[in-house]
Design brief:
The structure is a homodimer. The first copy, chain A, is built from six helices and five strands; from the N terminus they run H-H-H-H-E-E-H-E-E-H-E. Chain A is α+β, with helices and mostly antiparallel strands. Chain A has two domains: 42 residues, Arc Repressor Mutant, subunit A (Orthogonal Bundle); 81 residues, Lrp/AsnC effector binding domain/regulation of amino acid metabolism (RAM) domain (Alpha-Beta Plaits), CATH 3.30.70.920. In chain A, strands 3-4-2-5 form a four-stranded antiparallel beta sheet. In chain A, a hairpin with a 5-residue loop joins strand 3 and strand 4. The radius of gyration of chain A is 22 Å and the shape is elongated. At the A-B interface, helix 2, strand 1, strand 3, strand 4 and strand 5 of A face helix 2, strand 1, strand 3, strand 4 and strand 5 of B. Chain B binds a DNA duplex through helix 4. Chains A, B: One of its GO terms (molecular function) is sequence-specific DNA binding. Chains A, B: InterPro entries: ArsR-like_HTH (IPR011991), AsnC-type_HTH_dom (IPR000485), Dimeric_a/b-barrel (IPR011008), Tscrpt_reg_AsnC-like (IPR019888), Tscrpt_reg_AsnC/Lrp_C (IPR019887), WH-like_DNA-bd_sf (IPR036388), WH_DNA-bd_sf (IPR036390).
Chain lengths: 175, 175
DNA sequence: CTTGAAATACTACTACG
DNA sequence: CGTAGTAGTATTTCAAG
């Protein structure tokens, strides 16, 4: 009955400089909503409301609040890579020649334009960047490698890890 | 005017054993739909129809066909990791002790249960697996590392690459 | 095989208690 | 938060290209 109070009445810990875990600050219903929308957001609001045992307007208000709060970053359609003819995934470790701000900036600008680049991250350790690239097959990757990757600015070394099997690839957040 | 014919009249190349590119087999409108839905799928069908200059029913039929064909794998809400208190991303390279089917199977089963594991892939090269894990901060990752990662079955070595900056992280497919 | 116009059923959304 | 009402949308039907 006062489960919703958790949202409206922050605890002492929640008001500290570093909130412990924003997701834990949500009540059971909000978490159920997020679980559902992360799995299938094409569900209608009335159906969602029924699932979480709430009236439609109340449910809609919660969804809108979750969006406005920024917790829900967006609602998107996911395309199946295989069906789209890009069944091959390659993870690439990149080492730059020089570790200067200009070198990093130049590389990042170019990396984002690489066809099929899904992720690009600056990392600690023996690599400067990790990128993941979706492409069709080894032929198309070889072409991409020879024509684009090897010409990325400031690159000393590129190491490719071909993905043989995708065990897990999710956008879902643990709740 | 016969742009739509591409869908209904496969070319000789498309009937070959390996279709060249399923996305190229789509007409301009289907691609516009996919572009929009990959960016924001919370748009109403009438608004989408207006954007692609089609009547609402025709637009809806196309969307449904794209879903039934499997090209659209699903529509989901994306949660902002930072807002969810999991602003830290770590990429992990794993080397197994033995390269036996049992060893791989056992590891994969356990790896999927690791809290915050977003991706897990078998790769070629100096690692057996790459995993990406979302967690809150270095403290929580350290805990995860000590309590879960080090106890994954059959692991010889784990190398962690902390993500310092996420340059690009997209679910969008190039169209 | 696809489209668009009209009609119906359902849903989102608002106002209010 | 829920109920009731209104506005707008999804969905079906059907005629036409």
């Amino acid at each position: 009955m006062n489960a919703t109070k958790i949202r409206s009445t922050p605890t002492a810990a929640a008001t500290a400089t570093v909130p412990p875990d924003p997701l834990q600050a949500l009540d059971r219903i909000d978490r159920a909503i997020l679980r559902q929308l992360q799995t299938d957001a094409s569900i209608s609001n009335v159906a969602l409301a029924a699932k979480v045992k709430l009236s439609a307007p109340a449910c809609l208000r919660r969804v809108e609040r979750l969006k406005e709060s920024g917790l829900i970053r967006g609602v998107v359609a996911l395309i199946d890579p295989k069906a789209a003819g890009a069944g091959m995934l390659v993870i690439i470790g990149v080492v730059l020649d020089r570790s200067t701000p200009e070198s990093f900036a130049e590389f990042e600008k170019a990396a984002q334009k690489v066809a099929g680049c899904m992720e690009c991250h600056v990392v600690t350790g023996e690599f400067d960047y990790f990128m993941t690239i979706r492409t069709r097959d080894s032929d198309s990757f070889n072409r991409l490698h020879a024509e684009q990757l090897l010409y990325l600015p400031g690159v000393r070394q590129i190491r490719s890890f071909m993905v043989l099997k995708e065990i897990l690839s999710t956008t879902k957040f643990p709740l």
